[in-house]
Amino acid sequence: MLLEKIEVCRQEMIQLSDEYELTSEPVILSSMKLDRLINEYLNYSVN
């Protein structure tokens, strides 16, 4: 489930980066969301 969320978020970020500059707020927010999901996955995997 978490891996699916990560993939969806990754695709969303890619789509946003096609529409906006990489330094735009929508892309950065999406990137931050993806980072949180990846960190959550890594923390879950380690424990």
From TrEMBL:
Q: Extract the GO molecular function terms from the UniProt entry.
A: protein dimerization activity
Q: Where is the signal peptide?
A: none
Q: Which domain of life is it from?
A: Bacteria
- An annotated GO BP: regulation of sporulation
- Give the InterPro entries listed for this entry: HLH_DNA-bd_sf, Spo0E-like, Spo0E-like_sf
> Gene3D superfamilies of this UniProt entry?
Helix-loop-helix DNA-binding domain (4.10.280.10)
The protein's name is Spo0E family sporulation regulatory protein-aspartic acid phosphatase
